[in-house]
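does this look right to u?? magnesium ion version
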Amino acid sequence: MKIIDVKCAVIGKNPIVRIVTDQGISGFGEVEQYKPYLKPFVLQFREPLLGADPTDVERTMLRIRQRGAFKPYGAAISAIEMALWDVAGKAAGLPVYKLLGGKVRDRVRVYNGALRTKLPSYRPEDMAAEMKRMMALPEGFTIVKQGISFHSPMKNEPGYFYGEVAPSALHGWLDRGPMTERGMNYTLDCVAAMKEALGDKVGLALDCGPGWMLPDAIRFARAVEKHNLMWLEDMLTGDYVPFVNADVYRDLTVSTTTPIHTGEQIYLRQNFKDLIERQAVRVVGPDPCDVGGIAELKWIAEYADLHGILMAPHGTGNGVLGLAALVQVCAALPHNFIAFEYPAGDPLWWYDIVDGLPNPIVRDGLIDVWDRPGMGVDIVPERAKRYLADEDKNFFD
Ligand SMILES: [Mg+2]
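got this back:
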């Protein structure tokens, strides 16, 4: 089998990759909905991929892998990798998890990071109400994640931290600085209110930054130990920060029993090496749509497991094809897997243009792993065509 074309169209907000082969099989991959601007970045890999056998996924990836980078620039490579696995699975007549070593579990656990409401404010009572709303969702999530501190508008409160707040129109500005005692107490009050609402029925993870200084991070992680949080995410680096700082994370991790988590921005297994070998975090959270793909994520999970580190993949903006990829790879991860971050279709018409998703998708916080070939969720061209821009009219041809 040979690749004869690589196409990319922005459908809704997500760049969608299509690998076209000489045997009539196509594979699809998806880039996060926050990155529609990556379409030309995907298409520059068309030339080097032409002629490759897509069922030799690893050999094909060697043509392009070194041209990616930390978030957002690993996303194009990652979506192509997923599309290759989709082709390989369809060609073999097998679900992708079989090609990754087979199923370790029949149902995969998800945590809620996507089904949120815009809060009227980040006061403790509003955050507690949001927890109650999340608990009542029909998906029955057993773990939820909430943004706080530097990962939320909370940081804009006057006197929250000793630093300059970014003008809101500027993208890419990293708010960062020492926290005031008032800011610290306010954040702790919010955590206490959320935990009171959730009780011990639903686990709480907090997305915290990046932006914290190490002494504040240590003080906070110790102060919330009594709440038994699932993890504190991205306190020091993370999200769009293009480096890791494993040695500083190590200082934080050894100072507290609260599990410390990072990794959504990191590209490739090599860049998890320090975090894992130095036991710098208790949980890693690569995103298959940024880290270099699903096999990349599996290698990291296996290596983390050897070192006693847990795995909770990121995924909030990955769309329904990204959801399918997460289900396939998480079915095959070792026992250190906690849950992956559930992505929603956005806009909602995404659910109308694909086949293969169960209904309902999530029950009791879990998704039944499906057995259709490839990723098992397919775009139906007849239903999707109306959402194509003029320049992408030939995407399915
Ligand atoms: Mg995060």
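The chain has a mean pLDDT of 96. idk if thats expected tbh
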